[in-house]
Design goal:
The protein has 166 residues and is α+β, with helices and mostly antiparallel strands. Helix content is 19%, strand content 42%. It is globular, with a radius of gyration of 16 Å. It holds the Pfam family Flavin_Reduct.
Length: 166
Amino acid sequence: MIDSTVWRAAMGQFATGVTVITTVDEAGRPLGMTANAFTSLSLVPPMVLICVDNNSSTLPQLAASGKYCVNILADGQEAVSRQFAQRGASDKFAGIPYFSGLLGLPVIEGCLASVECELSEQLAGGDHMILLGHGKHIYETEAASEPLVFYRGKYRKLAELEVATS
């Protein structure tokens, strides 16, 4: 059996983008969490998948709402990622500019792109739940920016990764 610390270190060799997944609770209050387990799944129909820890307090709300928004963070949004990564924070949206998308989901401003999705399927995946979503609306920023990247346990910029591999 592979030790979880060894597994995490090996998987950290794969650079990922950083997202904030948002939804709303039954009262319409915004909720969100940072996630880097995200990928585009299908072009036709447009689908994405996210992976959420089974112990996440946001997971039941995502399932109950039946919809979520994937906000792809820009390199200047590390503080946004850190704020949404806090467990048990009472208001993760404090000071974060956002608007309500066409599905009524929080769309964080300044992201490279945001995709509102309707949840189509949930699959068990070890200690995570895999949530498949059909893309319904896309919001893109006009600003030229690079993605926020997570690599070897740290936030990075593409320029740093280019220098490291040269």
